[in-house]
Amino acid sequence: MSDQFAPSLKQRSVHFRIPSASETALFTPDPKLLEAQHVVAFSNRHLASRPFSLLRSQVVKRMTAGGHRIIGVTSPAPGAGKSFLTANLAATLSRLPGKQILVFDLDIRRASLAENFGLVGETGLERFLAGETDDLRKVGRHVEGTNLTLYPCYSNDLDSMPLLAGARFTAFVESLRVLGDDTIILFDMPPVFANDDAMVIAGHVDAYLMVIEQGRTNQKQVVDSMRLLEPAECLGSVLNRYDGGMADPYGYSYGGYGKYTDYFSKED
Ligand SMILES: Nc1ncnc2c1ncn2[C@@H]1O[C@H](COP(=O)(O)OP(=O)(O)OP(=O)(O)O)[C@@H](O)[C@H]1O
Ligand SMILES: [Mg+2]
């Protein structure tokens, strides 16, 4: 640990140093890999990016209204599209001028941020959370030409609960909270029913997005999940793999990604 860079955790008033974009390594994703991973929202010319632009407006509006800085993305059960949504929301948010978008892969047991963007590395966020390093410059990767910095996990051989439940994780989140107003932070979270991780993380976010998978997530699962996450605030729900047909509220054709739309639970 570098004393100059990250003060000791023993000095409880000082936390971890969250690097600026220029302090993390630059990374240029392969466009073909992004397409294969369904990360489409970097370009507003991509037809499938349209629903994400709409979602971005809603999310920013609600975050601004609530003074929110840290948003989690979760779902009742696995595989609903949390990481897909997180990656694309991050990509579309990164097009906003004057914003810094930070994404942390906190689904430690089923991490996929590295795979979604084609990142390879040694020191993942799990190593930082485990206390093996305090230097987040080793973890962060700034996506070239954007306002987006990614903090992936590379291995899932660690027990996630001790990484999330201790004072170190609390100090880490507090460190994020002192970043400037221009910063938007997304946590890719585990599903609620998998284990306790989502509930622990929900205790640290300002609000969360609930991903609902069309045809697989039922109302009881959503209600039960939201109850388990209380008192965390639900920013809204997002209906994924939505087979809109005639009822598609936006009337768009989304090409290969046609089964996606946003479906906020709150009225505007
Ligand atoms: N609307 C969609 N259109 C196309 N592909 C999608 C869509 N939603 C999800 N996918 C794909 O489905 C797969 C599972 O989605 P994803 O990994 O985002 O789920 P998850 O909720 O994060 O799962 P886990 O609980 O394992 O973390 C991924 O390959 C993702 O790219
Ligand atoms: Mg995931």
Could you characterize the architecture of this molecule?
With 268 residues, this protein is α/β, with parallel strands linked by helices. The protein has nine helices and eight strands. An eight-stranded mixed sheet has the order 1-4-5-3-6-2-7-8, with helices on both faces. The longest helix is centred in the first third of the chain and has 17 residues, at 50-66. The radius of gyration is 18 Å and the shape is globular. It starts with 24 loop residues before the first strand and ends in a 28-residue tail after the last strand. Bound molecules: adenosine-5'-triphosphate (ATP) and magnesium ion (MG). Adenosine-5'-triphosphate is lined by residues 37-38, 75, 78-84, 107, 110, 112, 191, 240-241, 257, 259-260.
> Unreliable runs, pLDDT <50, ≥5 residues?
1-13, 245-268
Q: What is the C-level CATH assignment?
A: Alpha Beta
Read across the widest sheet, the strand sequence of neighbours is: 1-4-5-3-6-2-7-8
CATH homologous superfamily descriptor: P-loop containing nucleotide triphosphate hydrolases
Would you kindly provide a brief summary of this structure?
With 268 residues, this protein is α/β, with parallel strands linked by helices. The chain has 9 helices and 8 strands. The radius of gyration is 18 Å and the shape is globular.
